[in-house]
């Protein structure tokens, strides 16, 4: 397979981060994984990533707020938020990001097939 894209993964749970990273790497994605939101933000640069996969619930901040800061740096980067409690976050997601498709909020845990489908949909979205 050929290179499919550069993904920034922000998830504070080591097992989840490892599983997602391995699935993506086995499918020819380059992955930069961070467990600390502040470190992810400090290493974030414009044009570096094709997609951000980010947990909504992060220590010290939430994924929605972190993504808003990242969007100030790169307004073209695509996002897919992940949560194990989608019902809790759906309204905040819709009001904070009305221009994003519903596929930009994925439920965890996620199977390999579902993860690759969500990533593919996120990368294909023109926004």
Strand order of the largest sheet: 2-1-3-6-7
CATH superfamily grouping: Response regulator
**CATH architecture title:** 3-Layer(aba) Sandwich
Please give the largest β-sheet.
5 strands, parallel
- Mean pLDDT, as a whole number? 93
- What number of domains? 1
Number of helical stretches of at least 4 residues: 5
Helical residue percent band: 40-55%
Element-level helix/strand string? EHEHEEEHEHEH
What is the level 1 CATH name?
A: Alpha Beta
Describe this structure in words.
- This protein is of the alpha/beta class and 127 residues long.
- The protein has a single domain, classed as Rossmann fold (3-Layer(aba) Sandwich).
- The chain has 5 helices and 7 strands.
- Strands 2-1-3-6-7 form a 5-stranded parallel β-sheet, with helices on both faces. Strands 4-5 form a two-stranded antiparallel sheet.
- Helix 4 links the parallel strand 6 and strand 7.
- The two termini are 26 Å apart.
Give a summary of the structure in a few sentences:
With 127 residues, the chain is α/β, with parallel strands linked by helices.
Write the layout of secondary structure elements.
Layout: E1 5-10, H1 14-26, E2 29-34, H2 37-42, E3 51-55, E4 57-58, E5 61-62, H3 63-73, E6 78-83, H4 86-96, E7 105-107, H5 112-124
Parallel strand pairs: 1-2, 1-3, 3-6, 6-7
Antiparallel strand pairs: 4-5
